Amino acid sequence: MNKHIAVLAGDGIGPEITEGAVLVLKKVAAAFGHTFSFEPLLMGGCAIDACGEPLPAHTVERCLASDAVLLGAVGGPKWDTLPGDRRPEKGLLGIRKAMGLYSNIRPARLWKALADASPLKSALVENGVEIIVVRELTGGIYFGKRGSYSDETMGETAWDTEQYSVREIERITRIACELARKRSGRVISVDKANVLETSRLWRRTVHAYAEAHFPDVTVTDMLVDNAAMQIVKNPAQFDVLLTSNMFGDILSDEAAQVTGSIGMLASSSLGDTTCGLYEPIHGSAPDIAGTDAANPIATILAAAMMLRDSFGMTKECAAVERAVEAVLAEGWRTADIMSAGMKQIGCREMARRIAEHVS
Ligand code: NAD
Prior knowledge:
12 helices; binds nicotinamide-adenine-dinucleotide; alpha/beta; Isopropylmalate Dehydrogenase; single chain; 2 domains; 22% strand; two-stranded antiparallel ribbon
C-alpha cells in the first residue's frame, strides 16, 4: 500500500519523538512491503517563528490531502506571552477543526513490563490493562450555551448547558463500535441516564445505532459514577469505553493514571474520513528538549494506531506493539520509566531498538 503521512513535529521534544516514530514507520514499510512518504509541515511555535501564525494555510491544505497526520507536540515558554489567538495551542484546535475530528481515542495501556508504574495493587493489574476511551470531542457541555447573572438572594450565579443530538451520538457510536469490532467486540457506554435527559437520549441512541449497524458488537451501559469506581477497582474488565465529552475528559485522565507513565500514552482523533490525527498525550516537555532524554514510545504507539485505524493495517500495528513489548521486556528504559535493575537509554536509541524488533 502507498500512504502519504503529514508530519507536524512541532516544538520542544516534538522533533525528537516524531523522528523516532518515522523511523519505526519506515521499518514497518520495509518489513510489510508498503511505501510510506512523509511530508514535514509547520505547526505551533515553529510556525509562529517561521511565518507569524501557529497554523499556516499551507499546513491545513497539505494535512487534508494526506492519508493521516502524525503530530509531536506544540508550545513552550518562548511563546507563552503571546495573545491567546496567536499561541501554538491555537494551531492544535485549528487543525482538529479543519479536519472535522469529532472523536478522541485514548488507549490507556499498562504494559506488563511496567506493572510497577501503576499506583494500583499489583493483583489488580498483573494481567495487563488496556482501556480504550472513545470520547466525543466537539459537543456536550463544553460547547453548550452558558452564562452568568447576579441573583439578589444567591449572589453571582453561573450556568452551562449540555446538549447532544442523535447525529452526534450516532457518529461517535460508530467510531467506538468499529474499534470494538477489531478488538474484543465489547463496548461499555458511560452515561448518567438516571438523572440527565441528554444521557437518556445518549443511551437510547447508542443501543439503537449499534443494534442496527453493529449486531456483532455487545454494548452495555455503566453510570459514570460507577465507571469512575470500576476503573480503579477492576480495570481489566474494560476494553472500549464510549463517553460524552466531559465524562471522557475526566475518565480518560483517571484511566491514564492507572497505567502510570505519561511518556507511554498515545491518542488519535478521527472524523468522518479515515484521515486521522495521531499524537502522544503529553506536551512538548521543554525541560528536556534537545537532550535526547524524551521517551518516544507514546508517539511510536500513536503511529501504530495510525496503521490500524487509518490504514487498516492490523498486522502492522500489532508488530509495532510487539516490538515495544519486546524492548521493554529486555529491560531498556528511557529516564521517565527507569527503575532499579533496568538499562537506561536515550530517545534515539529507544526508537532504534523498537524499529529493529519490528518484523
Ligand atoms: P508536558 O507533558 O510537556 O510535560 C510534563 C512533564 O512530563 C515534564 O516534566 C516533561 O519532561 C515530562 N514528559 C512529557 N513528555 C515526556 C516524554 N515523552 N518523555 C519523558 N518525559 C516527558 O506538559 P507541560 O510541561 O505542562 O507543558 C509543556 C508545553 O507543552 C506547554 O507549552 C503546553 O502548552 C504544551 N502542551 C502541548 C500539548 C500538545 O501539543 N498536544 C499537550 C499538553 C501540553
